[in-house]
Design a protein that fits this description.
Elements: H1 2-20, H2 24-36, H3 39-43, E1 46-49, E2 52-55, E3 84-85, E4 91-94, E5 97-100, H4 117-126, H5 149-159
Length: 178
């Protein structure tokens, strides 16, 4: 009887581990989608390189740099202008206030490390943080909500394979009083 309960515990542990590990083809599909859908365009800060702005590879998909305190938002000129972006391309200001791109690495304290696959899918599907919180702000495209569950789950599986980067992104700021 003791061997049977030990065997049952081992099988349960192996099944749980297998459920947490995404198949390689799913991770590769996620890599393809993340890399072709422009995620790094906003979630990887730009830095000045020898030939101008370039993605900061050491902060890949880590969002707005924690230590970068942004000055007050400049006033937009009159006319059809709507948005201002930081030089890092990770802070955006407009009529909604100021938004900062999120840390998509699996850091458990500052990124997606504690998120479930369902949290990720619901966030992109509903346009709300964790599928139920505050509204996602520009420049986050609503188009990701039109992707299939399989594609969103593949993206999440890939993001979970990245090296975690501790980077606490600031909370959004409300619009300035008029």
């Amino acid at each position: 009887m003791k061997h049977l309960s030990l065997l049952l515990a081992l099988c349960t542990a192996l099944a749980a581990q297998a459920a947490q590990t995404a198949p390689r083809d799913r991770i590769e599909r996620g890599r393809y989608l993340v890399n072709t859908s422009g995620c790094a365009d906003c979630h990887t800060p730009l830095k000045m390189g020898p030939h101008g702005p370039e993605p900061d590879a050491a902060r890949r998909l880590a969002g707005h740099p924690e230590g970068l305190a942004m000055p007050p938002v400049p006033t937009l000129p009159a006319g059809p202008w709507l948005v201002i972006s930081s030089a890092t391309n990770t802070a955006w200001a407009g009529p909604w206030g100021v938004s900062f791109t999120a840390n998509l690495t699996p850091d458990p304290e500052t990124g997606l490390g504690r998120w479930s696959e369902q949290d990720f899918v619901q966030t992109l599907r509903t346009g709300r943080h964790l599928g139920r919180g505050r509204t996602l702000l520009p420049p986050m495209p609503a188009a990701y909500g039109q992707m299939t569950d399989a594609d969103l789950k593949a993206m999440f599986a890939y993001l979970k394979t990245l090296p975690p980067i501790r980077n606490r992104v600031p909370a959004p700021l409300p619009p300035a009083p008029r």
